[in-house]
Automatic annotation (TrEMBL), chain A:
InterPro entries: Beta-grasp_dom_sf, Mopterin_synth/thiamin_S_b, Sulfur_Carrier/Prot_Modifier, ThiS/MoaD-like
PANTHER family, per database record: SULFUR CARRIER PROTEIN CYSO, SULFUR CARRIER PROTEIN SLR0821-RELATED
Name by which UniProt lists this protein: MoaD/ThiS family protein
Organism: Denitromonas iodatirespirans
Highest rank taxon of the organism: Bacteria
UniProtKB/TrEMBL annotation, chain B:
Swiss-Prot/TrEMBL GO biological process terms: xyloglucan metabolic process
Lineage: Bacteria, Pseudomonadati, Pseudomonadota, Betaproteobacteria, Rhodocyclales
MF terms (GO), sorted A to Z: hydrolase activity
Keyword terms, alphabetized: Hydrolase
Claim: Transcription is one of the keywords in the record: no
Signal peptide: none
Protein name: Glycosyl hydrolase
Length: 85, 377
């Protein structure tokens, strides 16, 4: 499925859109990390929590759980939260 | 082979810079930015190989990581496994917010590095910083977790473990410090630690025997006399000569209008009686500026009994910057060179042990750390 990558992670993907697979959001991030080593830890901490300023949307709905199931036709948007000054 | 030239490694709130000096320390060339926009907490060149450069990095949005270079920053590679706490089965464990302190291991253990993190954690690498593992019982020990307090108990940008000091005579003998959480010593290679806080003051009203209430800002072991430690603390400047276990306050003789509060402390690499501090305004709400807007280093040549103000060349008024705990260092030359990075993004150097100062760079972001390196081919 197509995944939108925020600019802060383009050093890993070198592209705003990439292809990745997974039956859950967590599995999708694992696949991204296989393709782009190191990317997952920048998004998800060692306790399995999505980091404070990272957001994941599927079909316009924000997803918080790595266990959230994905369908092949889903498009996943990973964005940076608007924060800071 | 040409004579080694010093490189000042500058870590800032918005990237890293390398300031290359000539062998005379007269001319300096600024190289950077590296990692523009990234928060760089520490940048250290391995003195054992003169090649391996580690940078502790994070951003406002992304998790923390480390980068590694073996060609003075021409190319950087992210490490394979940055410091991270052990996962807790129920997800309640801690997560590293940033790596704060990088410490190369002893001379006879090439490739070994230690790291201190925020919140307080101690990590070790045995492969030149590429992969890291939690080190010692400290990170998950119930007693140490209590002494560390919560993340609300730490410094404004997060509680941290710092000042990892390794006894050059015995790599199993280590000191670490935590803000907050006190100074601790291990004599068994980090399998266990014990508090070393006797004689240190704490904020009025709190018990001195509880490590929780201790805030060491910077601890330095003297390379020329490893039984001597100095400490800049939230509550003054101290010296400890082992095997004694009670710290002696040595900052009381600083001028009352200046006080003995500050963050950095530098020891002379060849003379254990000589040290430098950079006092700041720690009164009332803790402005964290130079006292009265007039920055100055202070030097003692007798172990802290008497102090001399060193401000020749520094601004004489309306300079409201200060120097963070990792942002002052010495080189290895004779006379010794000193360097400091300011919260307002200036780098100042002294080629005469602090007697006079020259601005080497300005208009950088807020400087978090400066370290000296001697690259080798």
């Amino acid at each position: 499925m197509r995944v939108l990558i925020p600019s802060a992670l383009h050093d890993y993907t070198h592209a705003p859109w990439v292809e990745a697979q997974g039956e859950t959001l967590g599995a999708l991030l694992d696949d991204l990390d296989r393709q782009f080593p190191g990317l997952r830890f920048r998004m998800v901490d060692e306790q399995g929590h999505i980091r404070r300023h990272m957001r994941c949307f599927i079909g316009g709905v924000q997803i918080f759980a790595l266990s959230h199931p994905l369908a092949t036709a889903d498009e996943v948007l990973i964005v940076q939260a608007l924060s800071g000054g | 082979m040409s004579a080694p030239h010093p490189v000042l490694l500058i870590a800032t709130r918005k990237g890293a810079w390398l300031l290359h000096g000539d062998t005379e320390r007269q001319h300096w060339r600024l190289d950077g930015p590296h990692f523009l926009g990234h928060i760089i907490n520490h940048l250290v060149l391995d003195p054992r190989d003169g090649r391996t450069l580690l940078a502790a990095a994070s951003t406002g949005h992304l998790g923390p990581t480390l980068f590694r270079s073996t060609d003075l920053g021409a190319n950087w590679q992210e490490v394979a496994q940055p410091p991270a706490f052990a996962p807790a089965a129920d997800g309640s464990g801690r997560s590293v917010k940033h790596t704060f302190w990088l410490e190369p291991g002893p001379a006879d253990e090439p490739g070994v590095w230690y790291a201190g993190t925020s919140p307080q954690g101690l990590f070790r690498s045995a492969d030149g910083g590429d992969t890291w593992a939690p080190f010692s019982c400290l990170n998950d020990d119930a007693q140490y977790r209590e002494w560390m307090g919560s993340e609300q108990d730490g410094t404004p940008d997060g509680p941290k473990l710092h000042s990892i000091q390794i006894d050059p005579r015995d790599p199993a003998h280590l000191y670490i410090a935590m803000s907050g959480g006190g100074v601790h010593e291990s004599t068994d290679g980090g399998r266990s630690f014990a508090p070393l806080i006797d004689g240190l003051d704490v904020v009025e009203g709190f018990p001195r025997d509880q490590p929780t209430f201790h805030d060491p800002h910077c601890v330095r072991l003297c390379p020329s006399r490893p039984d001597r430690l100095y400490q800049q603390n939230h509550c003054g400047i101290y010296r400890l000569d082992r095997p004694a276990t009670t710290w002696q306050r040595i900052g009381d003789s600083l001028p009352e209008a200046v006080g003995d509060i500050g963050f950095p402390l530098v020891v002379h690499p060849r003379d254990a009686d000589t040290l430098w501090v950079f006092p700041m305004d720690g009164t009332a709400v803790w402005p964290r500026t130079s006292p009265d807007g007039r920055p100055a280093a202070y030097r003692s040549r007798d172990g802290g009994n008497r102090w001399q103000r060193l401000d020749h060349g520094l601004p004489t008024e309306q300079a409201w910057w200060t120097v963070k705990r990792q942002a002052m260092c010495a080189d290895l030359e004779a006379p010794l060179g000193l360097y400091l990075g300011t919260t307002s993004g200036e780098v100042w150097g002294s080629a005469d042990e602090g007697d006079s100062w020259t601005c080497l760079a300005r208009h950088l972001p807020e400087i978090y750390a400066v370290t000296i390196g001697y690259p080798r081919d």
